[in-house]
C-alpha cells in the first residue's frame, strides 16, 4: 500500500489521491468497500500509529512568564525595589532584594498556577471523546477516532467532524465546511469524480480532510492519511493553540489593578511630599536627605497596598470550579462560562434526551381502516401484547402488520440482547419501532432480509422525515416522519380511498395530548428505479397509519427544574416535537407559565411570522416552543437577550451551532451531540442531562461567591496596610532611634516606621495567599440556589465589598498602630531592639486580624456557626500553616535577619490575639444588621 503525493508514505511518481478514481483508491489502499478485517486494522495501527494530531505548541514558558510580569502592579514593585536600592545603599539593598524576591516568587506562583489551569482545561477537552462510524468486516462499528487506520471505511453524516483525510467513495448531497483548512466558511459541495492533480485543497472535491465538518448529507469514504500525515496534521505544528484563561472577572480585576496602581502612585507622591516636609520641619535637614528618608515609606506603601496574591487566587478558584463542574458532568470548554453560569436567568433546553429519558416505547397504533390499538409493556424488552379496547388481539390485521413492517424497514436501528439486557443500537425513536414490531410477533431480521433496501434518504431534522427504497414486490418507497411532513405527501389510504385528513389529524392531536411522540407512515410503489431522490418523495403516497410513543420525563430533570425556579431561573423547552406532545411533557415537568393568559406553546412556524416586537413578547411569555427549526432558535436567543436575559441554550444538531454561539452559554450534548455543536458550545454535558446544567449553575454561583469572598478578604488587608503607612507619615511622632551601622551606633531623629517594606510583603504575600486560598474551597452558601441570578452588569466591587473593606481596614489600622506605639513606649528606650519589637507586634496583630477575619469571610452573609465551623477543613490547614510561619517570623533567628523581626513575650502575643479577635463582634454585628430584613 502506498500513499499519494500528499502522504509521508507516498511515492512522488504516483498520482495524488484526489486525481484517482474510486476503485483505484480502494485498490491502492488494499481495502474493500465493506472495510478492513480486524486483523488488518490492528496491523495497520502498529505500522501507522494512532490517528492523533500532535498538539501544536501552546504558549511557551517565556510567554507565560512574561504574562506574570507584565502587570502594572508588578512594575510598581520592580521600580520600588530599584529606588530602594539606589537611595539607601545600606538598608535599602536588603529591602530591595526582598521585594525582588517577592516578584520572582509571585512570577513562579502565577506561572505554575496558569500552567496547571491550562493543562486542566486542555485535559477537559479529552473528556468528550470523538467517535466515528466505520465499517470493518462488513459491520458498522463505533470507534474512537484515534483508532482509525489508512484503509478504513468511514461513514459520515451531517454534524460529524471528519476524522482523517479520506477519499469519498459514495455520497448523498454531501457538504463540508472546510474553514479549519481553507478559511472558507461557506460549505463545499462534494463529488465523486477525480480532479486535476494540481488542484488546491479547496478544489479537491472528491476528498474530505481531517478537522473539517460535515454540514449536510451523508457519505462513505476511505481513509488515506491519518494523524500527523493529514493536511491538518501538517499545518497544526504551525498553529499555536492558546488556552485563554481570561474571563469577565479577570478582566474586571485587571482594570481594578490599574486603578489601584494609579491610586498608589498618587498616594506615594502625597506621602513623599508630606514626609519630606515633616522631616525637614522636625529635624532641620535639607530637602534631599529628608526626601531620601521618606522614600522608604513610599516604597512600603507600594508593596503593602498591591494585592500581589490576587491573580493566583483567582486562577485557582476558577480552576477548582472547572474541575468540580467536570465531576458534576458539565465539561467547561470556555472558561468565561464558569462565571456566566452564575448569572444565567433563562435556560432553553431541548426536550428529547435532556428533559426526557430518550427511552421511547410505542404505546399506541392507529390505521385508517382498523382504528386504534394499544401495545403494552415499557422499555426495550420486546415483551408485550397488542390490545384493542382492552381485549387481547391474537392476530394483527394486515394493515396493522404493514404499518409495523414500514416501521422496521424505514429504520436504521437494531435491537440486541447484551448480557440479559435489551439494548438499542441507533436512534431511540427508531428503536421503539423495532421493539413494537417484535412485540406483535414480526420477525424483524427476516423482514429486513426479504425487503432488501436499495437506497435511503436519511432523517434530517429540517425535513422531518426519512425515506427508503425497497426491492420487494416490484419496488416500494417507504416514508416515515412527523405527521405534518408525511400527510402532506399522501392522498389515499391502502384500500384506494381518499384520505380523511381531518380524522388523522384528530387522532394525532389525541396521541400528542397524552405526551406522545407521533410518527406517521406512508408508502408508494417505485417506478423501477434503483435510487431515490428528494423529488421522488414529494407526493402520491398512500397513508399507512400512526405510531405513538412515550418518552417519560427524567425524574432528576423535574427536581432540577424546581431548583432552577427557586433560583430565579426560567426554564423553557425548545423542541422539534409536536406542539401537543411538547405541551403535555412541559406540564409534567412543571414549566408552563403560572399566568393562565400566557400562551402554553408556540410553534416554530408561528415564530417565523412574528414581528420583532411580537417575538420579543412571545419569547418572554411562553415557555414551550414546538416544531422549532434551528433558525428559530437563533431568533429566540436574540429575542430573550433583547429582554436583558442571560441565556443558556442547549443544542445537539449541526444547525444549532449559530444559536449556541449567540447564547450567553451554549450547552452541547456529550453523548448525542454532533461535533459541530460541541465546538460551538461553552460547556458540554457529559450525560446529556438537564440536571447537569442546574448543577453547573450552582457551581458557577459558588465559584463567583468564593471569588468575592477572596476579594473581600484580601482587599481590606491592602487598604489597611496603606492606611497604616499614611497615618504614620501624617501623624506618627519622631523619635531618636539608635542604629548600629558597621559596629558604630548612630542616633538619628526620625519618623517612626510601623512596618518595613519586607514585613509588609510578608503580610501581604505569605499570609494573604495562605489564608485566602482556602476560601476557593469553601462549600456553597446554603441559599446559593434560593436567590435570584447575579446581575452581570453589577460591578465586581459592590457597595458591600467596598464598605466591608473600609470597616476592616480601619479596625486593622487602629489595632496595629495602637499596639505598635504601646510596645515601642513600653520598651522605655528607642534602640533598634525596641523598634524591631514594636514592628513585630504590629505585624503579628495584623496577622491575627487576618486569621479571625478569614473565619468571617467563609460566608458573606451567614455567621460561621450557621455554615458549620469545620465545614471547610482547608481553612484550618491555612490557619495552622500561617501560625507556624508567624511563629518562625517572631522567634526564628534567621527570620530576624531577613525581616528585622524580634521575639515577643507570651503576654504580647496574647494581647495581639485579643485585639485581632475584635473583628469578630464587629463583623458579626454587620452581618446581623444586613440579615435583619
Ligand atoms: P428535541 O428538539 O426536543 O430534542 P428532537 O430533536 O428529537 O426533539 P427532531 O429530531 O427534530 O426533534 O424530530 C422532529 C420530529 O421528526 C419528531 O417529532 C418526529 O415526528 C420526527 N422524527 C424524529 N426522529 C425521526 C426519525 N428517525 N425518522 C423519521 N422521523 C423522525
From TrEMBL:
Where in or outside the cell it occurs: the entry states: Endomembrane system
Please, which domain of life does this record's source organism belong to? Bacteria
- Does the entry feature the keyword tRNA processing, yes or no? no
Q: Which residues cross the membrane?
A: 69-87, 93-112, 256-275, 295-320, 711-735, 755-777, 797-822, 834-855, 875-894, 906-925
Q: Which GO terms describe its biological process?
A: intracellular potassium ion homeostasis; intracellular sodium ion homeostasis; potassium ion import across plasma membrane; proton transmembrane transport; sodium ion export across plasma membrane
UniProt domain Cation-transporting P-type ATPase N-terminal: residue ranges: 16-89
- Report membrane topology: Multi-pass membrane protein
Classification via Pfam families: Cation_ATPase, Cation_ATPase_C, Cation_ATPase_N, E1-E2_ATPase
What is one GO cellular-component annotation here? plasma membrane
- Which keywords does this Swiss-Prot/TrEMBL entry list? ATP-binding, Hydrolase, Magnesium, Membrane, Nucleotide-binding, Phosphoprotein, Translocase, Transmembrane, Transmembrane helix
Q: Which Gene3D superfamilies does the record associate with it? A: Calcium-transporting ATPase, cytoplasmic domain N, Calcium-transporting ATPase, cytoplasmic transduction domain A, Calcium-transporting ATPase, transmembrane domain, HAD superfamily/HAD-like
One term of GO molecular function? P-type sodium:potassium-exchanging transporter activity
Provide the family line.
Belongs to the cation transport ATPase (P-type) (TC 3.A.3) family. Type IIA subfamily.
Note the PANTHER family from the entry.
P-TYPE ATPASE, SODIUM/POTASSIUM-TRANSPORTING ATPASE SUBUNIT ALPHA
* Name by which UniProt lists this protein: HAD family hydrolase
Upper classification of the source organism reads: Bacteria, Pseudomonadati, Pseudomonadota, Gammaproteobacteria, Lysobacterales
Amino acid at each position: 500500500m502506498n500513499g499519494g503525493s500528499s502522504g509521508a508514505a507516498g511515492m512522488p511518481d504516483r498520482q495524488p489521491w484526489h486525481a484517482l478514481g474510486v476503485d483505484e483508491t480502494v485498490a491502492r489502499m488494499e481495502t474493500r468497500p465493506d472495510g478492513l478485517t480486524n486483523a488488518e486494522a490492528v496491523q495497520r495501527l502498529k505500522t501507522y500509529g494512532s490517528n492523533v494530531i500532535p498538539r501544536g505548541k501552546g504558549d511557551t514558558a517565556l510567554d507565560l512568564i512574561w504574562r506574570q510580569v507584565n502587570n502594572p502592579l508588578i512594575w510598581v514593585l520592580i521600580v520600588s525595589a530599584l529606588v530602594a536600592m539606589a537611595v539607601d545603599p545600606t538598608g535599602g539593598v536588603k529591602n530591595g532584594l526582598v521585594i525582588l524576591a517577592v516578584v520572582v516568587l509571585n512570577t513562579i506562583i502565577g506561572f505554575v498556577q496558569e500552567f496547571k489551569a491550562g493543562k486542566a482545561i486542555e485535559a477537559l477537552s479529552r473528556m468528550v471523546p470523538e467517535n466515528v462510524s466505520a465499517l470493518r468486516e462488513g459491520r458498522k462499528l463505533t470507534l474512537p477516532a484515534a483508532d482509525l487506520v489508512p484503509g478504513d471505511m468511514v461513514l459520515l453524516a451531517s454534524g460529524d467532524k471528519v476524522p482523517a483525510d479520506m477519499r469519498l467513495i459514495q455520497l448523498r448531497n454531501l457538504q463540508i465546511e472546510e474553514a479549519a483548512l481553507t478559511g472558507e466558511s461557506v460549505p463545499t459541495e462534494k463529488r465523486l469524480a477525480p480532479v486535476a492533480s494540481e488542484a488546491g485543497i479547496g478544489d479537491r472535491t472528491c476528498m474530505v480532510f481531517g478537522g473539517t465538518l460535515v454540514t449536510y448529507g451523508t457519505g462513505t469514504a476511505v481513509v488515506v492519511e491519518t494523524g500527523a500525515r493529514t493536511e491538518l496534521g501538517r499545518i497544526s505544528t504551525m498553529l499555536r493553540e492558546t488556552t485563554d484563561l481570561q474571563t469577565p472577572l479577570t478582566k474586571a480585576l485587571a482594570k481594578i489593578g490599574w486603578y489601584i496602581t494609579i491610586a498608589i502612585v498618587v498616594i506615594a507622591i502625597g506621602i513623599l511630599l508630606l514626609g519630606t516636609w515633616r522631616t525637614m520641619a522636625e529635624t532641620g535637614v535639607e530637602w534631599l536627605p529628608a526626601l531620601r528618608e521618606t522614600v522608604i515609606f513610599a516604597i512600603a506603601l507600594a508593596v503593602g497596598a498591591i494585592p500581589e496574591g490576587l491573580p493566583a487566587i483567582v486562577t485557582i478558584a476558577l480552576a477548582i470550579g472547572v474541575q468540580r463542574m467536570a465531576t458534576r458532568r458539565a465539561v467547561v470548554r470556555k472558561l468565561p462560562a464558569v462565571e456566566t453560569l452564575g448569572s444565567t436567568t433563562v435556560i432553553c433546553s431541548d426536550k428529547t434526551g435532556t428533559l426526557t429519558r430518550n427511552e421511547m416505547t410505542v404505546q399506541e397504533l392507529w390505521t385508517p381502516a382498523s382504528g386504534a390499538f394499544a401495545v403494552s409493556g415499557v422499555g426495550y424488552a420486546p415483551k408485550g401484547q397488542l390490545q384493542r379496547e382492552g381485549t387481547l388481539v391474537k392476530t394483527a390485521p394486515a394493515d396493522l402488520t404493514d404499518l409495523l413492517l414500514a416501521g422496521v424497514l424505514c429504520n436504521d436501528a437494531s435491537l440486541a440482547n447484551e448480557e440479559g439486557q435489551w439494548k438499542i443500537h441507533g436512534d431511540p425513536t427508531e428503536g421503539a419501532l423495532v421493539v413494537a414490531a417484535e412485540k406483535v410477533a414480526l420477525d424483524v431480521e427476516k423482514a429486513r432480509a426479504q425487503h432488501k433496501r436499495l437506497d435511503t434518504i436519511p432523517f434530517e431534522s429540517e425535513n422531518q422525515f426519512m425515506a427508503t427504497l425497497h426491492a420487494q414486490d416490484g419496488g416500494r418507497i417507504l416514508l416515515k416522519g412527523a405527521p405534518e411532513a408525511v400527510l402532506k405527501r399522501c392522498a389515499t389510504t391502502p384500500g384506494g380511498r381518499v384520505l380523511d385528513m381531518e380524522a388523522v389529524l384528530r387522532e394525532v392531536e389525541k396521541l400528542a395530548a397524552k405526551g406522545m411522540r407521533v410518527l406517521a407512515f406512508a408508502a408508494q410503489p417505485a417506478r423501477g428505479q434503483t435510487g431515490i431522490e428528494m423529488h421522488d418523495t414529494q407526493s402520491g403516497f398512500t397513508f399507512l397509519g400512526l405510531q405513538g410513543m412515550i418518552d417519560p420525563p427524567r425524574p432528576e430533570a423535574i427536581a432540577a427544574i424546581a431548583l432552577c425556579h427557586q433560583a430565579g431561573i426560567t426554564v423553557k423547552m425548545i423542541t422539534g416535537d409536536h406542539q401537543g406532545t411538547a405541551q403535555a411533557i412541559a406540564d409534567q415537568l412543571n414549566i408552563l407559565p403560572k399566568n393562565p393568559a400566557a400562551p402554553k406553546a408556540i410553534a416554530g412556524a408561528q415564530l417565523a411570522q412574528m414581528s420583532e416586537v411580537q417575538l420579543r413578547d412571545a419569547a418572554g411569555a411562553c415557555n414551550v416552543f414546538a416544531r422549532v427549526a434551528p433558525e428559530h432558535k437563533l431568533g429566540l436567543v436574540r429575542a430573550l437577550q433583547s429582554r436583558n436575559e442571560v441565556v443558556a441554550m442547549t443544542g445537539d444538531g449541526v444547525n444549532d451551532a449559530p444559536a449556541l454561539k449567540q447564547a450567553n452559554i451554549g450547552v452541547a450534548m456529550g453523548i448525542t451531540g454532533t461535533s459541530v455543536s460541541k465546538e460551538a458550545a461553552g460547556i458540554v454535558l457529559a450525560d446529556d442531562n438537564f440536571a447537569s446544567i442546574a448543577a453547573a449553575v450552582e457551581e458557577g454561583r459558588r465559584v463567583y461567591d468564593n471569588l468575592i469572598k477572596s476579594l473581600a478578604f484580601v482587599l481590606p488587608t491592602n487598604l489597611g496596610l496603606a492606611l497604616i503607612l499614611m497615618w504614620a507619615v501624617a501623624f506618627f511622632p519622631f523619635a531618636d532611634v539608635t542604629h548600629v551601622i558597621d559596629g558604630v551606633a548612630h542616633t538619628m531623629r526620625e519618623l517612626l516606621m510601623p512596618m518595613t517594606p519586607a514585613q509588609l510583603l510578608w503580610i501581604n504575600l505569605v499570609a494573604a495567599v495562605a489564608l485566602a486560598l482556602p476560601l476557593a474551597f469553601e462549600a456553597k452558601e446554603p441559599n446559593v440556589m434560593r436567590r435570584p441570578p447575579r446581575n452581570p452588569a453589577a460591578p465586581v466591587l459592590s457597595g458591600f465589598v467596598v464598605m466591608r473593606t473600609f470597616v476592616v481596614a480601619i479596625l486593622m489600622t487602629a489595632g496595629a498602630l495602637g499596639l505598635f506605639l504601646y510596645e515601642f513606649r513600653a520598651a522605655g528606650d528607642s534602640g533598634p531592639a525596641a523598634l524591631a519589637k514594636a514592628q513585630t507586634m504590629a505585624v503579628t496583630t495584623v496577622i491575627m486580624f487576618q486569621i479571625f477575619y478569614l473565619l468571617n469571610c467563609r460566608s458573606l452573609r451567614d455567621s460561621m456557626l450557621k455554615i458549620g465551623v469545620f465545614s471547610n477543613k482547608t481553612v484550618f490547614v491555612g490557619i495552622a500553616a500561617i501560625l507556624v510561619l508567624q511563629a518562625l517570623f517572631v522567634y526564628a533567628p534567621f527570620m530576624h535577619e531577613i525581616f528585622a523581626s524580634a521575639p515577643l513575650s507570651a503576654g504580647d502575643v496574647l494581647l495581639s490575639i485579643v485585639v485581632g479577635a475584635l473583628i469578630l463582634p464587629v463583623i458579626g454585628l454587620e452581618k446581623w444588621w444586613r440579615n435583619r430584613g
